[in-house]
Amino acid sequence: MHVETVDHPLILLHGGAGAIHEDTPRARQRNEERETVLGSILRDAATRYQQGDSALDLVEFCVRAMEDSPLFNAGIGSVLTEQGWVEMDASIMDGATQKAGAVALLRRLRHPISAARFLMDHSPYVFLAGPDAEQWFVDQGLETIEPARLITAERKRQWEKATGRQLDHSAESGMEPTQTVGAVAIDRAGNLAAATSTGGMMRKAAGRIGDSALIGAGTFADNRSCAVSTTGEGEFFIRGTIAAAVHCSVTLQRRSLQDAVVHALEHLQSLGGNGGLIALTPSTGVFAFTTAGMYRAYLTGDQRIFVGSLQQLREFSP
Question: Which end of the chain has the smaller Cβ count within 10 Å, N or C?
Answer without folding.
Answer: C
